[in-house]
């Protein structure tokens, strides 16, 4: 199918894009890599009459060390950029590893971190990863800038805390604590590689081998990616022995209303959540060593 007719704008600055978004309101959609939006438009599940392409804006695609530590990643940064970045590999390795697991190289060459987060696909990989990394999201609109904690960002299926007039501008990732290891483990759809269940874990190990911090995000399991708070609590303060890891893995699905679809039943997703949480936690601990 072909899309409905739309007017196309290619602003060259964030402020111009914000002005266009404010002007056209609900009629407009931002276009990033287009790998989620264009298929929806072709199916006529989304019919914006105005498309605002962010691709011509210089300065929305970057990866830099942030003042005071951590990383600042522009929303238009592609998976391929994340995958290949030495800064990401050293500062937030789980982001590079997970980006390498998204779809295929063609999708990774165009799909963006910002597009993935703004789209909030329940099977997207990045939401779990940015939860585990405790990211903060920076938005722009004609009204100025706003910072949104990742814990407040994913609201429901395909729904985020972004206001209709806001552009996701930057993903701010705090520096990992010394002694941290991270990992992403997913059970992916064999055709698309979307996460049927994916778990990202950051685990901090102190000098005695005990867990001094844990941050775990789960995607694919329910309508939106979530923080596995009970699993984190089960790890922190533990000696990270098998019993503690198994308890954390078993708690990773607490509070999730599991999706049920052609790919997996709710019970199977619950099982996968525990299994993949255990794998991600064990790999994160190994990477901390
Ligand atoms: C064959 C195929 C396989 C895929 N497999 C996977 C997979 O294994 N794992 C995975 O995670 N994803 C997968 N995807 C999805 C892919 O990662 C998409 O690129 C991603 O979900 C959306 O990013 P995008 O840059 O293409 O955004 P777009 O499609 O351009 O936009 C998506 C939505 O976000 C909004 N948006 C985009 N950028 C911004 C912004 N800066 N501020 C505010 N709103 C914005 C748009 O208006 C739109 O509503 C797959 C896609 C395809 C086509």
Give the overall silhouette: globular
Order of helices and strands: EHEHEEEHHHHHHEEEEEEEEEHHH
Biggest sheet layout: 5 strands, antiparallel
Proportion in helices: 25-40%
Q: Segments where pLDDT lies below 50 for 5+ residues? A: none
Radius of gyration from the alpha-carbon trace, in angstroms: 19 Å
User: Cα distance, first to last residue?
Assistant: 52 Å
**Distinct bound molecules:** flavin-adenine dinucleotide
- According to CATH, what is the topology of the largest domain? Uridine Diphospho-n-acetylenolpyruvylglucosamine Reductase, domain 3
Query: Which structural class is indicated by helix and strand composition?
Result: alpha+beta
- Specify the CATH class of the largest domain: Alpha Beta
Q: What number is the mean pLDDT?
A: 97
Query: What share of the residues does DSSP label as strand, in percent?
Result: 25-35%
Describe the secondary-structure layout.
Elements lengths: L6 E3 L4 H11 L3 E4 L5 H6 L7 E4 L9 E3 L5 E4 L4 H6 L1 H6 L1 H8 L4 H6 L2 H7 L6 H7 L3 E6 L2 E6 L4 E3 L2 E2 L6 E7 L6 E9 L6 E11 L5 E9 L6 E2 L1 H7 L6 H10 L14 H23 L1
Parallel strand pairs: 1-3, 2-3
Antiparallel strand pairs: 4-5, 5-10, 6-7, 6-10, 8-9, 11-12, 12-13, 13-14
Helix pairs in contact: 9-10, 10-11
The chain binds flavin-adenine dinucleotide.
The site of flavin-adenine dinucleotide has 31 residues, from strand 2, helix 7 and strand 10.
């Amino acid at each position: 199918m072909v899309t409905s007719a739309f007017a196309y704008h290619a602003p060259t600055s964030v402020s111009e894009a914000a002005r266009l978004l404010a002007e056209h309101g609900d009629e407009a959609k931002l276009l990033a890599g287009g790998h989620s939006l264009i298929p929806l438009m072709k199916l006529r599940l989304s019919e914006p009459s105005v498309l605002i392409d962010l691709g011509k804006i210089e300065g929305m695609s970057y990866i830099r060390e942030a003042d005071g530590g951590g990383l600042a990643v522009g929303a238009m940064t592609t998976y391929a950029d994340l995958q290949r970045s030495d800064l990401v590999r050293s500062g937030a390795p789980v982001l590079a590893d997970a980006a390498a697991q998204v779809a295929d190289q063609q999708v990774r060459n165009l799909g963006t971190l910002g597009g993935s987060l703004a789209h909030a696909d329940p099977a997207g990989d990045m939401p779990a990863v940015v939860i585990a990394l405790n990211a903060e999201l920076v938005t722009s609109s004609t009204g100025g800038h706003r910072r949104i904690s990742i814990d407040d960002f994913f609201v429901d299926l395909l729904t985020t805390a972004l206001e209709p007039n806001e552009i996701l501008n930057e993903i701010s990732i705090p520096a990992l604590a010394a002694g941290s290891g991270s990992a992403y483990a997913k059970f992916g759809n064999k055709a698309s590689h979307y996460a049927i269940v994916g778990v990202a874990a950051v685990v901090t190990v102190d000098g005695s081998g005990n867990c001094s911090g844990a941050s775990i995000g789960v995607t694919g399991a329910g309508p939106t990616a979530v923080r596995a708070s009970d699993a984190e609590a089960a790890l922190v303060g533990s000696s990270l022995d098998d019993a503690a890891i198994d308890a954390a893995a078993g708690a990773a699905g607490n509070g999730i209303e599991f999706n049920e679809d052609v790919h997996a039943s709710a019970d199977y997703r619950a099982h996968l959540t525990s299994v993949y949480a255990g794998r991600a936690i064990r790999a994160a601990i190994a990477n901390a060593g």
